[in-house]
Amino acid sequence: MKNKIIAGNWKMNKNRVEAEQLITQLIPLVKDTSNTVVICVPYTDLCKAVKLTKGTNIHVGAQNCHWKESGAYTGEIAPSMLTELGVEYVVIGHSERRTYFGETDETVLARTKAALQAGLKPIVCIGETLEERNGGNMEKVLSRQVTEGFKDISADELKNIVVAYEPVWAIGTGVTATDEQANDAIAYVRGVFAAKYGKEAADALYIQYGGSMNDKNAAGLLAMSQIDGGLIGGASLVAEKFAAVVNAHK
Ligand code: PEP
């Protein structure tokens, strides 16, 4: 049986003082879980987060990284700049980046490759919009995101990747996919991976659900057979709520 990977995506929230408060509150609340706990914090909180979580079961992630090692890429961060701080995970291709910052399957792949090369574990986000779902194109979109976004990823590299299925219509909206909708979509995504990498590799792959997951709905979602964890936005900003998600599945 796999454990679950529960990752908090703080987005552009929490200054250093607030980050310290949240992490300090969180540490004792999640210390007994057998699930993997990750907090993906703003770049400016990374040092503090790594320092405060040292010796605990909380892992630290960033929310993006560039595909180049260095150069004239104003505003970007290289993967090795993250690993040298002690960062272990990085979110890649979040729908907010795809929507507002022109992220494409191609750039997602480039960032993922570079992150892997530096020794980071990418949490690669995929998911359909409401329009795509209602137009009957959900499978087509998910299939394209996996096929294009994982084009040169080897089976060995896949072992270090976490996938987050995040229907765009459920992110930050308070509308959660039902347990069955999330499970069915993830089963479909797993099938696409199985077609390329084989059933064993696809079964071993961690695929999270993300989209308004919180302390109230986490137990149901995490009990589903295909759901290997959660990527949590809003509810990860309150220690008790995020801890409740982490502890919702034993
Ligand atoms: C997210 O940021 O990936 C997310 C799922 O946000 P929320 O939980 O707020 O919907």
TrEMBL record:
Cross-referenced PROSITE patterns: TIM_1, TIM_2
Binding annotation for substrate: 9-11, 172, 212, 233-234
Metabolic or biological pathway: Carbohydrate degradation; glycolysis; D-glyceraldehyde 3-phosphate from glycerone phosphate: step 1/1; Carbohydrate biosynthesis; gluconeogenesis
GO MF: triose-phosphate isomerase activity
Gene Ontology CC, one term: cytosol
Matching InterPro entries: Aldolase_TIM, TIM_sf, TrioseP_Isoase_bac/euk, Triosephosphate_isomerase, Triosephosphate_isomerase_AS
Principal cellular location given in the protein's record: cytoplasm
GO biological process: gluconeogenesis; glyceraldehyde-3-phosphate biosynthetic process; glycerol catabolic process; glycolytic process
Localization, UniProt: Cytoplasm
Enzyme Commission (EC) number: 5.3.1.1
Active site: 94 (electrophile), 166 (proton acceptor)
Protein function: Involved in the gluconeogenesis. Catalyzes stereospecifically the conversion of dihydroxyacetone phosphate (DHAP) to D-glyceraldehyde-3-phosphate (G3P).
NCBIfam families: tim
Entry similarity comment: Belongs to the triosephosphate isomerase family.
Protein name, entry field: Triosephosphate isomerase
Gene source species: Candidatus Fimimonas merdipullorum
Source species taxonomy: Bacteria, Pseudomonadati, Myxococcota, Myxococcia, Myxococcales
Gene this protein is translated from: tpiA
